[in-house]
Amino acid sequence: MSLWKNAPIDSRAHAAVAANGLDYRVIDTADRAEFDPYLQAEMRGFLAGEQTDEQIGGARDGLSFRRFIGVYDPASAHPEQPVGTVNSWVTDVTLPGGRTLPMWAVSGVTVAPTHRRKGIARAMLEGELRTAADAGLAIAGLTVSEATIYGRFGFSPATYATDWRIDTRRAAWVGPRPDGRLDFVSRERLRDELADLHGRIRTARPGEIEAWPGLWRRMSGLVPGQQDAQKLRAVRYADPAGATRGLVVYRLADEGEDFTKHELQVHYLLSETADAYAALWRFVLEHDLVSVVQASLRSVDEPVRWMIADQRGAHVTTSEHGWLRILDVPTVLGARTYACAASLTLRVTDPLGFADGTWTLEIDGEGAPTVRPTDAEPDVTLSVNALSSLVLGGVRASVLSAAGLLAAEPHSAVAMDRAFASVDTPFLSLWY
Ligand SMILES: CC(C)(COP(=O)(O)OP(=O)(O)OC[C@H]1O[C@@H](n2cnc3c(N)ncnc32)[C@H](O)[C@@H]1OP(=O)(O)O)[C@@H](O)C(=O)NCCC(=O)NCCS
After folding, report:
1. Does the pLDDT of residue 116 top 90, yes or no?
2. What is the mean pLDDT of the chain?
């Protein structure tokens, strides 16, 4: 078993919740008497209804590989159900240049509404960050449903995502028409091919993380008790040699009164080649009896914009999506490659201490970095949040400078813009 899964509770976090008469412990995910009430509490924290035994079983199967820790109130009427939850695991995140780093992924942060604003979330998050740093992790990450919480712990957005709503009458296809073929695939095959395809593309995209098997089961509608699973449809694109190069998972929403005006909702569209991308987008946009195509969690740089006759037929909204939190500056800055040579001294501030310090970043003509601690005067002074946003190359130093989030002479901010730029747009295609 991985060492991180049952790493002991951070003693400072334990003491912080104990001061309020609460207990804090790592869950034994093999013990249903402990794990099932935990999962009910987490779902309640995310405002879901009470889960059936079948649904809890599905969650148990999909998530038990993770580390689960809970805050318990012994005085509660249901002391077996935690009042605070968080789960975490170690997974790879891709950096510009294609190297990956092990990342402490954090998920399922909830505090019961009866116990809010007593510092439980703070104790859990600071505790998890210290546990991650003690385990030797250089970076942590999460996706958020409440974006205002995590900045205070050093997390900051590093990838952005777009939601699309496309009027198919205005979005006549003007893109390529590749030669490969499209076929529906079974749920089981979809699960396996999604895992394979994502495994192949994830290191080509800064910001993408390694997925977990339960995610593909859910994406394929194979989790017991999963709502509306039978509505999911999946199509694969095979290249002329017969190899799967792309998959789209979608559902058709109820049409209301007019059968010609269904909404096609793209749940996931994953492609390995430009041909697969074009063929699958064309498939959804030219689907008969569909007037609107809706797609969430797409890149900020979708080529489909240029494949439709009228770009105004697509309504696109952008939001932050993948949040990172650097714990070890030299390891993270030293693991990516850069766009050009540069020499920069960075002063990083971190109220929690992990990333605090001053480093010189020397980048050679090949984009390879050397990072060393220094006492030199900094060219750039920035918080760990700002550096965590910049590290994938999707956010620019000069923009953060203009926003007052980074202090630098303009030429240093521009040097950082040029060096940190990423050829591939940073993107995370998953929620976790
Ligand atoms: C969000 C949530 C986890 C906060 O838990 P909590 O125990 O009440 O938080 P804490 O008391 O530890 O507060 C920590 C800090 O975050 C702030 N904070 C907490 N919830 C906040 C919110 N919803 N919006 C903005 N700030 C928030 C607190 O003011 C406090 O700030 P400070 O310590 O800098 O003064 C809890 O309200 C919850 O479970 N909400 C529903 C589920 C959810 O949104 N989870 C987050 C998923 S991404």
Report:
1. yes
2. 97
